[in-house]
Amino acid sequence: MTTRNHDAPAALAPYRLVWLALWAEATPQQETELAEHLRAALEPHGTVIVPARGPFPRTPEMLHFEIDLTPNGSAPDCLQALGFTQDKEFGGWNGSWERPVHGGVFLHPTVYGAQAGEMGAATAPRFKTGDVVRVGDSADARELGLAGAEVIVGHPDYEDGTAPAQRAWYYSLHVEGRDETEFLDEADLHPTGRHVQLYGDRITVSPDGSGASRPTPPARTSAPSSGDCRS
């Protein structure tokens, strides 16, 4: 007779990511040293990329870091190891921390606020933040008035409540002349081979990928406030 091990761990999603957005009370001269400290602090949890974003537009006295961490184990286990908790009432994660509200230190004494989340799917998203893509001719694209347009990828996402193997990527999209981002499925988007810096200064897309710049705040995150905290 075959027995089942009910305590066997769930299979890891082939693609998994923990993302962190941090705001630190530090000067631009401290940016390189602080980025290296954050990388070293997170390295025991997995493979870490720590791009420094410079001063945050809304709070220029703070440096902004957006961190991608590919965890050694599952993404939820990694978030828990970093001190974040799941929201038992609404699901998802209590993914915010702020020093004046919660006290203590998160990764480094200069870190004032943090936001975090996780993703897991069968495959990695085809596009990344800042990719210039051409919108195909689909019903959803026509409804948004974007068929044939070139737009800039913000962040990937998928519908909650689906198993990793069934998750399909869609993207927030930055459209020239529109204040609000739009959303389309990955199948509606086609690569152009061009990439722009989305955060900081951006963007007027031109055929060679260059253009005029203007300040643009991040799409994924906002500066921490006392009403946006981890419990």
Task: Summarize the structure in words.
With 231 residues, the protein is mainly beta. The chain has 2 domains: 15-121, Alpha-Beta Plaits, CATH 3.30.70; 131-195, SH3 type barrels, CATH 2.30.30. Helices cover 12% and strands 35% of the residues. The protein contains 4 helices and 15 strands. The protein has helices at 31-42, 75-81, 99-102, 139-143; strands at residues 15-24, 46-49, 52-55, 63-71, 85-86, 93-94, 96-98, 111-121, 131-135, 150-157, 170-174, 182-185, 189-195, 200-202, 214-216. The strands form 4 sheets. Strands 1, 2, 3, 4, 7 and 8 form a 6-stranded antiparallel beta sheet that branches. A 5-stranded antiparallel beta sheet has the order 12-11-10-9-13, with no helix packed on it. Residues 1-8, 200-223 and 225-231 have low confidence and may be disordered.
Figure out the total of helices. 4
Distance between the termini: 47 Å
Over the alpha carbons, how many angstroms does the gyration radius reach?
A: 19 Å
Global shape:
globular
Low-confidence stretches: 1-8, 200-223, 225-231
Domain count: the total is 2
